[in-house]
Amino acid sequence: MIKLSAGTAAVMGLSGSRMDVFPTTAYLLSGNSCTMKCSFCPQGIGKSETLNRLGRITWPEHSWDEINEGFLAARSRGGKRVCLQSVRHRDGIKTLLKNVSAIKKISSLPLSLSAWVKDHEEAAALIKAGVDRISISLDVVNPDAHKKIKGGSLADRLELLLDCAYRLPGRMSTHLICGLGESEKETIGLINQLVKNDITVALFAFIPLKGTPLAGAKQPDLDSYRRIQAAYYLLREKKIDYSSISFLNERLVSYGLLQSELLKYLENGLAFQTSGCMDCNRPYYNERPGGIIYNYHRPLLPGEIREALDCLASSISSGSRV
After folding, report:
1. pTM for this prediction
2. What b-and-e string marks burial along 177-203, b requiring 16 or more CB atoms within 10 Å of the CB?
3. What is the DSSP string of 205-259?
């Protein structure tokens, strides 16, 4: 047995849920009762009623036979990748290797993995087993907040991530959550370091979840999130250098571009879509249907692009370069 996200169960025909956009990646979840106690995550609560939740998503359990049949339906509906997400297992990567093997037997799609690995040897073993990309999630950008919210050292996890990226070039990813006590300068500085080391970044907006220690915290301001999304896109696409970005009191105020240049680079809307592994769209993973959309899970409509650009332009410098 293994868990599927509710959206993946729908795209596989294993539930009757209706969706406006299907996931382009099949999301599976390995394990129960994470040994981590992240303050933003339902898995960290340790209660039985939260073990089928990760992020905003519920994860019903299914047999491998059901999933085998479901992969055929998923591919016919546009499925392009598999993502195995995992709690931190008590047996290290033993269960991960078992589940990776099971997935590779029934699917030829590229396989991403988001899991706790302790060193580059474990990462290499998972790649050898058939994983296409591995995410070592940093999540919390500010070192003090990281220690308080996730536990442990941000510097140590970043060192491991960079070491794996050096030894396994083009194979590493990470997750960053905006809205957990970090500044824009901290976030964009770290993004720049990750981009330079060929590490793919999946940006998330923090969302408070019922029952977690951070249930009463606020989500990040949308204009701040848009500034960070744009900075990541411009750095990733080599449209700007980090040195051209200006900050005031740790807040981004300019990309060092003419306004016409900025609008031209961002007019396709790609900066505001879900970031991370190729073909990952995570529908409503950190948004509520009908609420603010931080990460669009589909190409933006013209009006949505204008809205995102207006939000961005109104919050940065109005001089000759923005």
Report:
1. 0.93
2. bbbbebbbeebbbbbbebbeeebbbbb
3. E----TTSTTTTPPPPPHHHHHHHHHHHHHHHTTSS-GGG-EEETTEEEE-SSBH
Characterize the bridge pairing of strands 61-62 and 2-4: antiparallel
How do residues 215-265 score in pLDDT, each as one tens digit?
999 999 999 999 999 999 999 999 999 999 999 999 999 999 998 999 999
Q: Are 35 and 24 in contact (CB under 8 A)?
A: no
11-41 per-position pLDDT tens digit: 888 876 676 777 899 999 987 778 888 999 8
Instruction: Give the contacts of 105 (CB within 8 A, at least 6 positions apart).
Output: none
Q: DSSP 3-state assignment of 75? A: helix
What six digits make up the tokens of 250? 């740790």
Q: Are 251 and 220 in contact (CB under 8 A)?
A: no
3-state secondary structure (DSSP) of residue 7: helix
- Strand, helix or coil at 22? coil
Question: Which DSSP string do the residues of 252-318 spell out, in sequence order?
Answer: EEE-SSBHHHHHHHHTT-GGGB--SSTT---TTSSS-TTS--SSBSSPPPHHHHHHHHHHHHTTS--
Among residues 196, 313, 205, 209, the alpha carbon closest in space to that of 263 is found at 313
Helix (H/G/I), strand (E/B), else coil: 180: coil
Burial status of residue 263 (CB atoms within 10 A of its CB: 0-12, 13-18, 19 or more):
middle
